[in-house]
């Protein structure tokens, strides 16, 4: 095989972080190679893709076995596996184009020639830390996209549009918005009715509702001015690994479009933002129909009334876009990757151990972009606000 690792480059298991709140080793922008490459976007031929897949799975299987042994030896959190995170990230990419980008970046990160990726069996005695950087470079491979521009605060307008579209109800629990109910009762008293014309005297399910971004609003916030800082530009390139071009759906002001938002009660908002609840399309059903599932323990799942099938609301005039099936698919892919790699459980344990700060703000919303990045790469920022 060309460009095989030299004896001096013997690989050692890149142990996942210890189960404590250690600070991250380096900033995201210094790890991800954001250089554009036309070759990185070239599709693979059928035979070449098959050979590359075989080699990829051979390598990741080898690393998963080594990583499991290291976890047993060191006593660290055994369910979280970075090699498995890499494999699941590839498996849940949503198109052949995205998977080809991932494979090219993976091979480049390991200094292997993808053109010679025939039946390759790993022959290294010890794995290398390069495998950890492989997923980061793979996720950043579709970096030819332009610099993304940050957004101003448009949440008030977005909230109004989503409440109208979703008939002032949580799209999962169907609980009605408590604030809107009060406003209508004070205005119309006993004649007050919901958006479907049903009297409030016949309803008891009320809740404080919030706007939940499908892909997080914090990805597009800026620290100064209107330009995106490098770490957020890098985070957006992750989206293209799952679905090439998906990042453009939330470019600039589009992050705050109704197609990237749902109306949820506060509890479901937190769980959806943590990728514990996800939407799965129902085959052969009417448009915008989903089976809503979770990775929560069975008792919690039943308490929330999940799983449940819902057809999302649309306005009669179709002037407000429904939630984007494409963005919901990316959210679902992230949820599965975190669950199957054990990353979600590991990061939850780390968050419980963190001293000071809060991951949830007073209004019930979260720094979802930061939590997503933290979950993906296994480190913690110096503060989570």
Describe the SSE topology.
Elements: H1 28-31, H2 46-74, H3 82-91, H4 96-109, H5 130-139, H6 155-165, E1 176-177, H7 178-188, E2 206-207, E3 209-213, H8 230-242, E4 261-265, H9 266-273, E5 277-281, E6 289-294, H10 298-303, E7 308-311, H11 325-341, H12 343-353, H13 368-377
Parallel strand pairs: 1-2
Antiparallel strand pairs: 3-4, 5-6, 6-7
Helix pairs in contact: 2-3, 2-4, 3-5, 3-11, 4-5
What does this structure look like?
- Pfam families: HNH_2.
- Residues 200-280 form the HNH nuclease domain.
- The radius of gyration is 23 Å and the shape is elongated.
- The protein is mainly alpha-helical and 385 residues long.
- The chain is 40% helix and 8% strand.
- The strands form three sheets. A three-stranded antiparallel β-sheet has the order 5-6-7. The protein has a two-stranded parallel sheet with strand order 1-2. It has a two-stranded antiparallel ribbon with strand order 3-4.
- It folds into two domains: 7-139, no CATH class; 155-377, no CATH class.
- It starts with 27 loop residues before the first helix and ends in an 8-residue tail after the last helix.
Q: What string gives the helices and strands in order? A: HHHHHHEHEEHEHEEHEHHH
Low-pLDDT residue intervals, each spanning 5 or more residues: 1-38, 124-133, 135-151, 354-385
End-to-end Cα distance, whole Å, is: 48 Å
| Continuous helix count | 13
Strand segment tally:
7
**Mean pLDDT reading:** 72
Helix share of residues? 40-55%
Beta-strand content: 5-15%
Kindly report the spatial arrangement of strands forming the biggest sheet. Answer: 5-6-7
* Estimated radius of gyration: 23 Å
Structural class: mainly alpha
Shape: elongated
What is the number of domains? Answer: 2
Major sheet: 3 strands, antiparallel
């Amino acid at each position: 095989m060309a460009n095989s690792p030299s004896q001096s480059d013997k690989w050692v298991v890149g142990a996942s972080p210890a189960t404590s709140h250690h600070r991250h080793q380096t900033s995201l922008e210094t790890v991800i190679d954001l250089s554009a490459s036309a070759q990185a976007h070239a599709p693979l031929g059928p035979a070449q893709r098959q050979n590359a897949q075989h080699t990829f799975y051979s390598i990741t299987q080898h690393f998963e076995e080594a990583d499991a042994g290291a976890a047993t030896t060191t006593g660290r959190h055994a369910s979280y596996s970075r090699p498995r995170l890499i494999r699941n990230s590839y498996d849940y990419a949503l198109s052949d184009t995205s998977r080809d980008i991932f494979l090219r970046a993976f091979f480049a990160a390991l200094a292997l020639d993808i053109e010679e990726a025939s039946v390759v069996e790993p022959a290294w005695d010890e794995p290398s830390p390069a495998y950890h950087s492989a997923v980061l470079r793979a996720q950043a491979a579709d970096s030819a996209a332009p610099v993304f521009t940050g957004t101003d605060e448009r949440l008030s307008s977005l909230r109004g549009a989503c409440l109208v579209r979703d008939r002032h109800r949580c799209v999962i629990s169907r609980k009605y918005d408590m604030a809107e109910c009060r406003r209508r009762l004070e205005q119309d008293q006993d004649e007050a009715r919901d958006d479907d014309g049903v009297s409030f005297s016949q309803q008891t399910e009320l809740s404080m509702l919030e706007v939940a971004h499908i892909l997080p609003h914090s990805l597009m916030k800026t620290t100064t001015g209107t330009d995106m800082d490098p770490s957020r530009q890098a985070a957006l390139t992750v989206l293209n690994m799952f679905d090439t071009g998906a990042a453009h759906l939330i470019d600039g002001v589009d992050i705050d479009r109704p197609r990237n938002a749902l109306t949820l009660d506060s509890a479901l908002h937190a769980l959806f933002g943590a990728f514990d609840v996800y939407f799965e399309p129902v085959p052969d059903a009417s448009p915008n129909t989903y089976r809503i599932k979770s990775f929560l323990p069975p008792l919690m799942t039943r308490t929330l009334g999940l799983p449940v099938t819902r057809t999302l609301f649309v306005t009669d005039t179709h002037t407000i876009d429904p939630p984007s099936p494409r963005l919901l698919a990316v959210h679902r892919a992230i949820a599965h990757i975190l669950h199957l790699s054990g990353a979600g459980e590991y990061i939850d344990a780390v968050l419980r151990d963190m001293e000071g700060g809060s991951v949830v703000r007073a209004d019930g919303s979260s720094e979802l972009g930061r939590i997503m990045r933290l979950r993906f790469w296994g480190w913690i920022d110096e503060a989570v606000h």
